[in-house]
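pasting for the record
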Amino acid sequence: MAISNHQLKIANRMRISATIITFNEEENIQSACDSLAWADEIVVVDSQSTDNTRKIATQCGARVINRGWPGFAAQKQFATDQALHEWVFSLDADERVSEELKSSIAGLRNKAENQLADGYLIARRSFYLGRWIKAGGWYPDRQLRLFKRSLGQWVGPHIHESVKLKANARVEKLSGDILHYSISGAAHHHRMIGERYAPLAARQMFEEGRRTSPLKIAVAAPSAFIRSFILKAGFRDGLAGLSIASFAAQHAFLKQLMLWEIQRKGDRQ
């Protein structure tokens, strides 16, 4: 029996595994999974949550794997390795897929294999202090989130994990946004910097061989504020932009100070 072009197209359709890593995300996981309903499968790798994250994800139809926490890049790589399909779309639990992005991905599925790139950069838009942020370095904040798993590897020892594709891979931009709901308010933002981002950044800088000084510590905050609020046009976002720039200054100062503490301990050993 001859195979029609339509049947051949269905057989060769781009199949996508969506992956999410979680820890105590019962408030987010339902919406995250709902925004991935278009995927051929959803894989949730949960790092031993103590709430109902795994139960809700299972009810959403996701394949759920319970695994201890090895770090961001390692956990996302594990999730990628569990995918059934060559194409992987990675989403965080506090992110959603916009309607425009869904349409763009649907458009890719109608293309022939040789018309596809090996990975796609997607803009991420953050919701902060009651508004969608459009400047200050927070947008478009393009992320490589849709990629061929055979060509990609998650990298990043502590923070800012990302996918690195092989040198000959072709990367293109995809229309539409990933919608990011990561920060609930000023107190939450403050805690994230002090308890997570600054300590991890300082540790990563130290392991990369970077060192600081009193002068670097002194100029870190004002330099970060000027870069975010003025050079990257954070003023366009009003009070939200001012807050982002101020917290960027706090983060820059704190990570340099924590790096100084780490290197002093190393010098005394």
